[in-house]
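hey so i finaly got around to running the thing on WKF domain-containing protein from Crotalus adamanteus. pasting the sequence first so u can double check i didnt mess up the copy paste, my clipboard has been acting weird all day
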Amino acid sequence: MTEGERLQGKKQEEQEEEETEEELSPEEKRILERKLKKERNKAQKKLMREARIGAKKNEPKKPSGSEMALDYLNTWSESPQGWKFQKTRQTWLLLHMYDKDQIPDQYFSILLRYLEGLQGRARDTTVQKAEALMKEYDHSEMEDDLLEEKRERIRKVLQLLS
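ok and heres what it spat out for the 3d tokens, dont ask me to read them lol
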């Protein structure tokens, strides 16, 4: 349907409404006006909803927790003057440091240097958790490459912090 046909159809509808309004009682007119208002509001809300959806599609994707933590670690390593301590990033790193999927080997060596500066309660808790994990994995009878990689990372952390 072209724009001209649509406008002509709209004019025709308005003329029909005017003709029917002349035949309607005041109560019927009020009901008709409310219906029309409801339809306009519904159409307007639909347009607003579509505009919001379109805007969301254009927004850039937010980085994941792992990306932000690895970026934090990289910044600490490469440009200390631009680095700022962030507890949430440190906590994420400490929670995931034994997982090779979360923290690849290239970042793990940086993480070990970062852990050298770990102080206070964070250091104590990290050592306690590493010792507990080591005991758990030592008593485990599973021989898995993934488990061996975690054991190796735990050993390195314990050697560094103990």
